[in-house]
């Protein structure tokens, strides 16, 4: 039997995790196959994770912790691993998002990532050119992990202003968009979430920009995230944030109030996804 591949924990967050997983597995005197059987994964998956060839999911990490009788050393790798699933230009944003007590977004093309369903997010990432199935799943899981900020006892307030055209843009098969719209209706029952639609009839040239997400703390904007067709960037310049805030306020003032927005989403769901 060939000797196990020597691991370099400094190569990446995934490699660091893999080296630790192997260390604790050796301490338990288990083979990869024995660990795989205990957590319900394949031996090849465990091998890929230990070598750092594959990012582990949070579920896999938690199952390994439980099986090996650990209390945190493997899960402590998760922040670095989940950040590693994101593009370089986006990694600066999630820590800002987690600090905010209020988030305001303008979504002209698709439902905002923070309130997407798993199926909707997967359909979007599958449409990206040159992505592998594993990259798609990594991106989906990272997006779902971002949504955990709303599981806190005091979640941030989230206001999403969405262009009405988003309701009519099919993403994935005919059921994916339908379920996504139902999800928005359900979320709107929470005090932390407000959705407003910008109707087709709105005469607001301020909307002629890409998606934007503004983070605030104690009523003060602290940073923003804006996207282009190629990549996104974090904005922390006071003057740029001021211009963005002014634009977002114009967009919001032209949007329907929440109760009419939810009513229009419900009407769209009742008519079915065309």
Automatic annotation (TrEMBL):
Pfam families per record? DUF5753, HTH_31
Q: Which GO terms describe its molecular function?
A: DNA binding
SMART domains for this protein = HTH_XRE (SM00530)
Q: This protein's superkingdom?
A: Bacteria
**Which positions fall inside the HTH cro/C1-type domain?**
21-75
- InterPro entries, per this entry? Cro/C1-type_HTH, DUF5753, Lambda_DNA-bd_dom_sf
In Swiss-Prot or TrEMBL terms, this protein is called Transcriptional regulator with XRE-family HTH domain
Query: Which species is this UniProt entry from?
Result: Nonomuraea jabiensis
């Amino acid at each position: 039997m060939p000797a196990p591949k020597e691991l370099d924990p400094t190569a990446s967050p995934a490699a660091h995790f893999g080296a630790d997983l192997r260390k604790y597995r050796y301490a338990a005197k288990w083979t990869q196959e024995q660990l795989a059987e205990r957590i319900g994964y394949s031996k090849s998956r465990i091998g890929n994770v230990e070598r750092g060839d594959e990012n582990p999911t949070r579920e896999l990490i938690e199952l390994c912790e439980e099986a090996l009788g650990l209390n945190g050393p493997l899960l402590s790798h998760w922040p670095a691993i989940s950040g590693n699933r994101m593009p370089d230009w986006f990694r600066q944003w999630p820590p800002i998002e987690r600090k905010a007590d209020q988030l305001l977004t303008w979504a002209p093309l698709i439902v905002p990532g923070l309130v997407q369903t798993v199926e909707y997010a997967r359909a979007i990432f599958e449409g990206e050119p040159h992505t592998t199935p594993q990259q798609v799943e990594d991106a989906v899981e990272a997006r779902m992990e971002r949504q955990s900020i709303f599981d806190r006892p005091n979640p941030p307030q989230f206001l999403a202003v969405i262009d009405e055209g988003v309701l009519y843009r099919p993403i994935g098969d005919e059921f994916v968009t339908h379920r996504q719209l139902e999800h928005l209706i359900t979320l709107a029952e929470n005090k932390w979430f407000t959705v407003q639609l910008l109707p087709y009839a709105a005469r607001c040239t301020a909307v002629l920009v890409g998606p934007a997400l503004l983070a605030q703390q104690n009523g003060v904007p602290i940073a923003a995230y804006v996207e282009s067709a190629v990549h996104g960037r974090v904005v922390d310049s006071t003057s740029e944030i001021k211009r963005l805030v002014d634009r977002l306020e114009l967009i919001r003032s032209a949007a329907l109030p929440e109760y009419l927005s939810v009513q229009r989403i419900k009407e769209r769901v009742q008519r079915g996804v065309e």
